[in-house]
Every structure is written in structure tokens, then in C-alpha cells.
Design brief:
With 282 residues, this protein is of the alpha/beta class. It folds into 2 domains: 241 residues, P-loop containing nucleotide triphosphate hydrolases (Rossmann fold, 3-Layer(aba) Sandwich); 38 residues, no CATH class. It contains 10 helices and 10 strands. The strands form 2 sheets. Strands 6-7-8-3-9-10 form a 6-stranded mixed β-sheet, with helices on both faces. A 4-stranded antiparallel β-sheet has the order 2-1-4-5, covered by helices on one side. The termini are far apart.
């Protein structure tokens, strides 16, 4: 499978006040991300996950090392426009991404800056709003919408630019459970359409359907693999002061109570199946 992002010995440091040592947020990160994949990146606050996200579309430039996005070096000023077209980004607070007083104008803002023809912009706006189930709100004012609806508009604005990659930097952090579920459904649908998805989150239930899970800890990659591979190392995750998915926690507790529950269960339906099999054996 073709690699759409290549990260080689990435170091990123934030500057402190004059005379003080810089803060190293990322320390020799090496990653490759497949085109069309769904990669979830998790970690506690300060782990470097959001800094990594911002290095993936040129919002931040490596202190050392390189980041290539679809073949373009993020440190190359002449390539930044190409990178931003290929790698869109959705942030935690949708209010920071909404720029217009009417929803359809807001979604059109990105394509307009790309110099797209007006007729094509209208098609893209309508399609993007339908993709996020917000077509009926195209003439509404964004400030009258709920937090979840605003985040869907922010996603539509990125989708309308037709990027190959969408980086979601904790897009559900400010939403209630219903809003989080709606946004995750949209993210999964975008992935099914072939968009490369990179999801930064701290909600464990949001990562179990990813192709790959990366756990960041103190600026480094602590674990990297499929959800089953990563969450089979629950003790390592807990030592990094992170939670594990509810079904992993439940499985551990049931085994301590003497029940023969298989290792590697991370989804609710898997736990139900295991419990039903256990009951049928007794």
C-alpha cells in the first residue's frame, strides 16, 4: 500500500523565554501512514499528539527531521499550498474555524481560496453539507447551531476542499456523548469513501474501529499496531496513565473473578459473544 505520510526522525521543540531551554514536544518520531487508512493517535495531555497533528500539514515545521505529505516536504515554503490542499485539518473548537455568517458561505470559503470555479464550488458545498447531514441548514447562521452541528459544518468546510487526508485534532472533545457519536459516524463514512483519516483523541471508544492505533507518551511513540495488538498491552498503557477501552477493563475484572474470558476483547459485541459461549458451556 502506498505511503501518503512519511515522518523521519521528527523532533519538535517549543521555544521558551530567552535564556531558557526549549521544550521538546516530539522526540525522534518515525512513522509511515498508508493512503486510505484510518489511524488513531492517543495520549494524555502533553504527550505530543496534537503537536504531531500540526506537523502533518505544515502548521508546525520540524525543529529536526522531515515530514513528507504526499511527496511534499512540509519544511519547503514553496510546497505548503500543495500540502494544505492535500491535508485538511479539523480542530477541537469549531468556533475557531467558522468564518462566515451563513453556513453555505462558510463551507465555500476553502474552495474559494483554492480558486475553484463558482459553479464547481456550489456543487462541492452542496455535496459536503449532504455528507455531514447538514444540507437543510445551508442558509442558517452558524452561531445559532449546536456544538455538534458547528463541528459538522467545520468538517464540511474541509471536505469541500477535497483533501486526500483529513486530520481530526480532538474533534469531539467539546461535545456531549450524542454529538461525539454523530461526528464519529461521519468520520467513519469519510474513511469508507477513501479519505485517509488521522484522528487525535483521548476517548478510547473512538479508536477501536481504527486500522491502527498509535499511543504517544512524553513525545515518543509508546505503542503502534492494530487496536487488538495495542490494547493487549493494557499494563503498558496503564503505566502511561491512560485508560483502556471499557471492554478491556471489564475482561480483566471478569478474569480476576475466575471467569474464562478470552484475551483481546475490545468491542461490546465480542464480550457479549464470549459471555454467551461461557454460559452455554455451564
Amino acid at each position: 500500500m502506498e505511503k501518503i505520510i512519511t515522518i523521519d526522525n521528527l523532533i519538535f521543540e517549543y521555544s521558551k523565554s530567552e535564556g531558557s531551554e526549549n521544550i521538546r514536544a516530539l522526540d525522534c518520531v518515525n512513522l509511515e501512514i498508508d493512503e486510505g487508512s484510518f489511524t488513531a493517535i492517543i495520549g494524555k495531555n502533553g504527550s505530543g499528539k496534537s503537536t504531531l497533528a500540526k506537523n502533518l500539514n505544515g502548521l508546525l515545521i520540524p525543529t529536526e527531521g522531515t515530514v513528507f505529505v504526499d511527496g511534499y516536504d512540509t519544511a519547503d515554503d514553496d510546497s505548503i499550498w500543495e500540502i494544505r490542499q492535500r491535508a485538511g485539518m479539523v480542530f477541537q473548537n469549531p468556533d475557531n474555524q467558522l468564518v462566515s455568517s451563513i453556513v453555505e458561505d462558510d463551507v465555500a470559503f476553502g474552495p474559494e481560496n483554492l480558486g475553484i470555479e463558482p459553479e464547481e464550488i456550489r456543487r462541492r458545498v452542496d455535496k459536503a453539507l449532504e455528507d455531514v447531514n447538514m444540507g437543510q441548514y445551508k442558509h442558517k447562521a452558524p452561531h445559532l447551531l449546536s456544538g455538534g452541528q458547528k463541528q459538522r459544518i467545520a468538517i464540511a468546510g474541509v471536505v469541500a476542499m477535497k483533501p486526500k487526508i483529513i486530520i481530526f485534532d480532538e474533534p469531539t472533545a467539546m461535545l456531549d456523548p450524542k454529538g461525539r457519536k454523530e461526528i464519529m459516524k461521519i468520520i467513519m463514512e469519510l474513511h469508507k469513501e477513501g479519505i485517509t483519516v488521522i484522528l487525535i483523541t483521548h476517548f478510547m471508544e473512538e479508536v477501536i474501529d481504527a486500522d491502527r492505533v498509535i499511543i504517544m507518551h512524553e513525545g515518543k511513540v509508546l505503542l503502534d499496531g492494530t487496536p487488538y495488538e495495542v490494547f493487549s498491552q493494557a499494563d503498558v498503557i496503564r503505566k502511561a496513565n491512560l485508560d483502556v477501552p471499557i471492554m478491556v477493563e471489564l475482561g480483566d475484572r471478569l478474569r480476576k473473578e475466575g471467569l474464562d474470558i478470552p484475551q483481546g476483547i475490545i468491542k461490546e459485541e465480542e464480550m457479549v459473544k464470549a459471555l454467551c459461549q461461557l454460559k452455554s458451556q455451564n
